[in-house]
Amino acid sequence: MTATVEETGSAPRRGARLAGYAGRAFLPIVVVAAILAVLPPLWFEDSPFTTSLAVKALVFASYGVGFNLIFGCTNQLFLCVGALAGVGGYSTAILSDRASLSIWAAIAVGTVSAAIIGGALSWIAVRRSLGIIFTGIVTLVFSLAFTNVLLGQRDLTGSETGLVLNEAAASLGDDRVGGYYLFAGVLVGCLLVFRVLQLSHVGWAFRGLRDDEMAAELAGVDVARYRIYAATVGSAMIGLTGALFAYSSGFISPDTYGFQNVDVRVLVLVAFGGLGTLLGPVIGAAVFAILDERLSASLELREVLYGVFVIAIFLGFRHGVVHAVVTLFNRLFARRRAKSTLQPSRE
Amino acid sequence: MKAVILDGIVLGLAFGLLGVGMTLVYGLGGVINLAYGQIVVVGAIVASLVIERGHSQALAAVVGVLAAAGVAVLLDLTLMRPVYRQHGDERILLGLLLTLGAAFVIGGLLVWRYPTGALFISILGEPISILGVPMAVGAVWASVIALAVGAALLLFFGATTFGRGVRSVIQDETGARLVGINPSFVRTVVFALSGALAGIVAITQSMNGPLDVNRGFELTTFALIVAVVGGLGSVAGAFLAGVLLGIVSTLSAHYIGQYITTVILLGVAALTILVRPRGLLGR
Fold first, then answer.
1. Which A residues in the span 233-292 are in contact with B, Cβ-Cβ below 8 Å?
2. In terms of CATH architecture, what is B2-275?
């Protein structure tokens, strides 16, 4: 950010510096996109099993980016990631099945409804000035109520047996390369939105209200409005991913979007990667996908390990494991770089 | 109708007992213990193991309660120490996340080691008739225990020196320290008390039906709802909210349907936070 603050140099040089800064800001996304693009041909083109693992990692990375925008950037503890994704997924499934809406229109409706619900939850939290704890409880309550409604409305949602989406295109299935590229595209899109928001005036407001809410409010930042922005955009990302996942996997059940299956995982992987950082969710999702595959034999031990991770992360690595590793790296090589490329926006 | 309301009161006393352990810990240090349900399950599994060895149910109940209290103390002495070093929102958030982690560790280990573990304490006897409605003996016992525990807690906080010390820490930590009360010791004792309450919940719940190893998360949720509606930190509030929620719950289960009941209870909790964040009897 120093480049834009300093008022030295002529206009063209400043322009060049700005362009250089923007380039550097988007470099991580380009790198991620490139890695995602070459991964299938190099690694798992013909293995449906590995592909579906990779798709799951991508889905969780996108959930993570949305959650990061809400919790990491504006301190709103939304414990309803699964429910928001479920709003997207179930609206898509029910609308395309019952109302015979075209699948893409249904996905759009699902995304918008998730965004509206997320925005509304944030609006309520801001209006009633709920602290972090009550925001957490209200969203957790929403999440559990949503699961119960899904279980109860048997004719509409199929309850535990779930819903099958018939219209899914085979080439975009979650075990095909087409599905992989679909979700890779979604993830890169989410990252771009996240970065653009960080670079704009919205990002300044986010950092202000994250560091000191009162000071930000006094400095003229409309904290309430930016919170609702973040929740709406983040929920839209989560809803879109949930809707596309429903379409791609061709089958959803309340478990697909359950609190214990989605929220805990998203929280762990975002915290692992580093709250509020651009690439934190991506790195977290990749690490946990590999971990999951290794531990697929024992679900219970995986749960134990998640618990240990949560405790260890929040006790020892408050800024994420990635941040800790980068700091260690910098110290070892005595290169006191002011900012690491992984976290260009958190001074 | 009379039977439904009586059932509601029985369920409500169980809810109240469940919520009181949660509410005490929050009132004291601002920590919402998300591992509470798992501590209940620890008590249940330990008690069931004692019964399996051929000992009496009474001994099993005592050992189960002690085990739950022990786990709670262990949590307090390890994970809660860094939490209490924080203040305000930081403390609440860290407490929430660390106990969530603990819930997963405890729950995962229990399900892994005892996948079919369950506690069922059977109390034989003819149904007891109350106001002309026959009630199962187990349910009556559970309610009597809940009432006794509630009365004992109110007495403890109202009439003993240590109880008043606890209340002083709830009101003002620094002030309590200035008059010679050690907040961290008080917290450990209250955590142990909350663990023992969780153990008692395990015993009373299993008098109505088997309490199995997977119930932890559900119990935490209900404890949280009761504590929130009653007012976080209020013992009498937890029991009042428990009884109200219990009656609402059985009425709606009887007249509307089972699945909508949970949604209604969750809705009541959300509404309480929005309309009256300090709960029924909260300060």
1. 260, 264, 267, 271
2. Orthogonal Bundle (1.10)
